[in-house]
């Protein structure tokens, strides 16, 4: 499993580009389904943006903001964005491809990252016992050791440092591609 996690980490971005090509080939968008998909896309982008403003990678364990609800808000946001685009494409094949990619690529990466966090941050076990891996809890969790990290405040500097705006730019590019394909399908 550890070996596959390393492979999955390396291929997830190139595989994402390959999936984008398949996506545009299979997409049969309409304004209605793009609108429905946008709901999930906006929620996913918001979760990712907020999470990136709370995480100080390799410095401290992120437990504030979205991390108080789920241990993997960046992956949750990505999954919602992907599902939103699958809805916007009106393709069950894309839903299947996204689910398979998530199970085969992202779950092993999550397990690998959590093993690293467990070995690096002694407080991770308490955090993992109280905060679900993916589906968020209803109320935020607060660590017993008091406040953590940046006192729970969103940091625009962290958002910019992590270049999370690239997710927004990518979403705009995919949406533009869908609108172009929709126009071409009408002709």
Overall pLDDT level: 91
> Helix segment count?
7
Give helix and strand order, one letter per element, not per position.
HHHHHHH
- Number of beta-strand segments: 0
Q: Radius of gyration, rounded?
A: 18 Å
Ends apart, CA distance between termini: 49 Å
The structural class is: mainly alpha
- What count of domains describes the coordinates? 1
Helix percentage range: 55-70%
Q: How much beta, percentage-wise?
A: under 5%
- Which spans of ≥5 residues are poorly predicted at pLDDT below 50? none
Describe the global form: globular
**Main beta sheet:** none
Described by its quaternary structure, the protein is single chain
Structure, explained:
- This protein has seven helices and no strands.
- The protein has helices spanning 2-26, 31-52, 73-89, 92-120, 124-130, 156-161, 165-186.
- Helix 2 runs antiparallel to helix 7, helix 3 (73-89) packs antiparallel against helix 4 and helix 3 packs parallel to helix 7.
Key traits:
single chain; 187 residues; mainly alpha; 68% helix
Give a quick summary of the entry.
The protein is mostly helical and 187 residues long.
Task: Note the topology.
Elements: H1 2-26, H2 31-52, H3 73-89, H4 92-120, H5 124-130, H6 156-161, H7 165-186
């Amino acid at each position: 499993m550890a070996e596959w996690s390393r492979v999955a980490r390396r291929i997830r971005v190139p595989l994402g580009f390959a999936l984008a090509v398949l996506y545009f080939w299979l997409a049969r968008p309409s304004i209605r389904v793009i609108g429905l998909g946008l709901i999930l896309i906006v929620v996913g982008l918001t979760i990712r943006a907020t999470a990136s403003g709370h995480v100080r990678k390799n410095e401290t364990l992120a437990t504030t903001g979205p991390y108080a609800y789920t241990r993997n808000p960046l992956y949750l946001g990505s999954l919602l964005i992907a599902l939103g685009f699958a809805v916007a494409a009106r393709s069950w094949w894309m839903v299947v491809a996204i689910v398979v990619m998530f199970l085969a690529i992202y779950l092993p990466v999550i397990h690998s990252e959590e093993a690293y966090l467990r070995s690096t941050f002694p407080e991770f076990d308490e955090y993992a016992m109280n905060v679900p891996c993916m589906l968020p809890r209803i109320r935020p969790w607060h660590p017993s050791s008091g406040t953590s990290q940046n006192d729970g405040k969103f940091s625009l500097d962290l958002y910019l440092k992590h270049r999370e705006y690239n997710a927004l730019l990518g979403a705009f590019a995919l949406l533009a591609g869908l609108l172009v394909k929709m126009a071409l399908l009408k002709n």
